[in-house]
């Protein structure tokens, strides 16, 4: 490239990036077309005359997000980097902050939002800053935990998110696991449940946690399962749960007595929600996350770097 051409490209780039002139202003001052200015700015970057450095941006993390999106055909992925020597509490806190900020950006007017519950979802909801919206409805997509583990009760989370969004909330007055199939069916078919089921059909977004393998110790609700339930799940090789619905490593929902006694959105219904968001982290949960992504039950994932790397390694 001729020296005078390089000089002109450099001058255009300086005026645009350093002096912050508009392309129209540059065109007028240099007596050239605005389209020419646009072309020259692009050429200056290609020729290395302009080098753009983005601070506070981890390109490796971005590439990992893109790899996950491409591998599982996801709508969105939001990753948190893993800080060296960070405690579990610190990592959970950073995940919650990232999830809360991302969710707030997506929440808009007139949305119907469904929530499951648990530590990851509860922590994310707590981090969402208030946002004045109109005609937002927030509903639970699974029954509540037992009285023993009620810290992240779904009704509490539903109320809190609706309050922050200036929205309405519906509650679910039943534990997630009922004693019999007949009791569960009675609740589903009761008059008070009609409006909730209608909202499930109109969900714009579902925000859910992901339960790990049966050996995973942090469950908020599995004390409701009977010994027979655990035996059946083990025999059928349950790998995790979502909306309190268990599935195997192929993503097959495990139907049976337990599933028929469960009050919650079915995985097939979750897959129909326009934005189905899973929030979870931990290498031990990676095997539980993969089937949900492969089967398309979730189209959005918020997790951390090491979990993402493990998901790609085993998928």
Terminal Cα separation, in Å?
A: 48 Å
Low-confidence stretches: none
Task: State the strand order across the main sheet.
Answer: 1-9-8-5-2-3-4
Mean pLDDT: 92
- Broad structural category: alpha/beta
Q: What is the alpha-carbon Rg in Å?
A: 25 Å
Strand and helix order: HHHHEHEHEHEHHEHEEHHEHEH
Task: Give a structural overview.
- This protein has 315 residues and is an alpha/beta fold.
- The chain is 45% helix and 12% strand.
- The chain has helices at 3-18, 23-30, 34-46, 59-72, 88-106, 119-127, 154-164, 181-188, 194-201, 227-235, 257-260, 267-270, 286-294, 305-314, and strands at 76-80, 112-115, 137-140, 168-169, 205-209, 238-242, 245-248, 275-279, 300-304.
- The strands form two sheets. It has a seven-stranded parallel beta sheet with strand order 1-9-8-5-2-3-4, with helices on both faces. A two-stranded antiparallel sheet has the order 6-7.
- The protein is elongated.
- The two termini are 48 Å apart.
- This is Sugar-binding transcriptional regulator.
Which short descriptors sum up this protein?
single chain; 315 residues; alpha/beta; 7-stranded parallel β-sheet; two-stranded antiparallel ribbon; Sugar-bd_dom_put; SorC_transcr_regulators; transcription regulation; Sugar-binding transcriptional regulator
């Amino acid at each position: 490239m001729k020296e005078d051409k390089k000089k002109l490209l450099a001058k255009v780039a300086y005026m645009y990036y350093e002096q912050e002139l508009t392309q129209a202003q540059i065109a007028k001052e240099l007596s050239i077309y605005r389209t020419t200015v646009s072309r020259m700015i692009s050429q200056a970057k290609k020729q290395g005359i302009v080098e753009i450095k983005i601070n506070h941006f981890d390109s490796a993390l971005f590439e990992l997000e893109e790899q996950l999106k491409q591998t599982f055909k996801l709508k969105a992925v939001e990753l948190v980097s893993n800080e060296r020597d960070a405690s579990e509490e610190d990592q959970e806190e950073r995940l919650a902050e990232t999830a809360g900020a991302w969710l707030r950006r997506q929440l808009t007017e007139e949305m119907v939002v469904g929530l499951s519950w648990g530590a990851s979802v509860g922590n994310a909801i707590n981090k969402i800053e208030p946002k004045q919206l109109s005609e937002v409805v927030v509903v639970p997509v699974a029954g509540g935990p037992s009285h023993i583990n009620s810290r992240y009760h779904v009704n509490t989370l539903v109320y809190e998110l609706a309050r922050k969004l200036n929205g309405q909330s519906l509650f679910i007055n039943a534990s997630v696991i009922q004693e019999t199939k007949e009791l569960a069916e009675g609740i589903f078919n009761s008059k008070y449940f009609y409006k909730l089921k209608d909202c499930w059909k109109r969900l714009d977004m579902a925000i859910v946690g992901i339960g790990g393998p049966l050996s995973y110790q942090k469950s908020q609700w599995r004390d409701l399962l009977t010994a027979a339930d655990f035996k059946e799940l083990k025999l059928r090789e349950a790998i995790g749960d979502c909306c309190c619905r268990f599935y195997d490593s192929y993503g097959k929902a495990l139907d049976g007595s337990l599933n028929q006694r469960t009050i919650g959105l079915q995985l097939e219904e979750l897959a129909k929600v326009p934005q189905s968001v899973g929030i979870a982290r931990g290498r031990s949960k990676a095997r539980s996350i993969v089937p949900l992504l492969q089967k398309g039950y979730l189209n959005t994932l918020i997790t951390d770097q090491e979990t993402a790397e493990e998901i790609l390694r085993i998928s």
